[in-house]
Design the sequence.
C-alpha cells in the first residue's frame, strides 16, 4: 500500500532523495472519489515517470457554493485501495491547515482564459484551482503533472499558470474516459439519483450530434434550439453554457473553421455536469 502522507515535512523528506538522484517525479492532482478517469491519469504518469504522487484534496477555495463543497463525495479508504495496483510512491492527503495555514493570504489568478465557461459561471473557481495547483506543484516538486481533458479549461489554465510562474513542470493532458453510454466519468456522477443517471448521457449525445452538424458546415445558431429542447425534455433544468470555442485560447466561435471544442455545463436533478469534445 502506498504511504498516505499528511504533512509537508514528511512529503519533503520523501521527495528530496528522489530529486537528488535525478528521478522523474509525476503528480496527479485529484479531489478523490477516484474513478477510471482519474486512474487513467495515474497509469499515464506511471508509464513515463520514475515516481508518482497522487494528491487527494477537496480544495475549499475552488467551490463557490458551500452546499456543493459539503456534498462533495469523500472516499479516502476506497481511493487508497483503488491505487494499490498502480504501486504509486505516495498519496499526498493534506488537511486544510497544511494547505492553508492561519494567515494564508495569497491568490494565484490567471486572466483571459478564465473569463468564460466555468470561469464566468463559477466566480472564484479558477483562482482556487490555480492557487492550490501552484502549491501542489511546488510541494511535490514534480517534473510532470497529469490532468484530464474532461476539465479542458482547467487544463489550459494550469498550463498557463505554470508557464507564467516559471514553475519547471510539464503539464500533460489526457483524454476523457467515459462510461459505456457516453457519460463522462466524474466524481459528481455518484450524486445522481438512479433516474437522473438514466438521462445523464443525453448531454454527451446532444453534444456529439451538434459536433457532427458543425463538421458538416452548420453554425451554432442553427443547431442550438433543437439541442436545448432535447436537454430540457431529458430533465436538464438549466444550461450554464453550450458553446463552441477555439481549442487554443478558448475564443468563442460560431462555426468550426479552426481546431475547436464544444463545451457544455448543465444541471440535472441538482447535479452540475460538464463535458467537452473536440469538433
Ligand atoms: P477532480 O478529482 O474532479 O478534480 O479531477 C482530478 C483530475 O482528473 C483532473 O485533471 C480531471 O480533469 C481528471 N478527470 C476527471 N474526470 C476525468 C475523466 N472522465 N477522464 C479523464 N480525466 C478525468
Sequence:
Amino acid at each position: 500500500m502506498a504511504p498516505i502522507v499528511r504533512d509537508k515535512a514528511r512529503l519533503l523528506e520523501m521527495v528530496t532523495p528522489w530529486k537528488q538522484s535525478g528521478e522523474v517525479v509525476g503528480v496527479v492532482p485529484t479531489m478523490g472519489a477516484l474513478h477510471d478517469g482519474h486512474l487513467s491519469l495515474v497509469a499515464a504518469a506511471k508509464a513515463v515517470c520514475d515516481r508518482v504522487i497522487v494528491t487527494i484534496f477537496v480544495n475549499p477555495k475552488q467551490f463557490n457554493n458551500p452546499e456543493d463543497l459539503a456534498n462533495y463525495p469523500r472516499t479516502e479508504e476506497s481511493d487508497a485501495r483503488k491505487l494499490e495496483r498502480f504501486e504509486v510512491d505516495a498519496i499526498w492527503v493534506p488537511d486544510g491547515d497544511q494547505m492553508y495555514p492561519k494567515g494564508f493570504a495569497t491568490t494565484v489568478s490567471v486572466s483571459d482564459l478564465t473569463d468564460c465557461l466555468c470561469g464566468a459561471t463559477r466566480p472564484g473557481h479558477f483562482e482556487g484551482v490555480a492557487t492550490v495547483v501552484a502549491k501542489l506543484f511546488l510541494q511535490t516538486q514534480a517534473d510532470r503533472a497529469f490532468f484530464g481533458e474532461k476539465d479542458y479549461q482547467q487544463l489550459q489554465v494550469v498550463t498557463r499558470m505554470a508557464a507564467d510562474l516559471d514553475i519547471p513542470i510539464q503539464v500533460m493532458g489526457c483524454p476523457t474516459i467515459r462510461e459505456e453510454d457516453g457519460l463522462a466519468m466524474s466524481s459528481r456522477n455518484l450524486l445522481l439519483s438512479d433516474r437522473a443517471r438514466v438521462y445523464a448521457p443525453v448531454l454527451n449525445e446532444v453534444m456529439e450530434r451538434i459536433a457532427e452538424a458543425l463538421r458538416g458546415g452548420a453554425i451554432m445558431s442553427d443547431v442550438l434550439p433543437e439541442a436545448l429542447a432535447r436537454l430540457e425534455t431529458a430533465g436538464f433544468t438549466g444550461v450554464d453554457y453550450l458553446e463552441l470555442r477555439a481549442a487554443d485560447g478558448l475564443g468563442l466561435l460560431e462555426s468550426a473553421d479552426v481546431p475547436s471544442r464544444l463545451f457544455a455545463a448543465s444541471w440535472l436533478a441538482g447535479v452540475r455536469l460538464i463535458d467537452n469534445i473536440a469538433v
Summary: The domain at 187-278 is CATH 3.30.1300.10 (Pantoate--beta-alanine Ligase; Chain: A,domain 2). The longest strand covers residues 236-246. The mean pLDDT is 97.
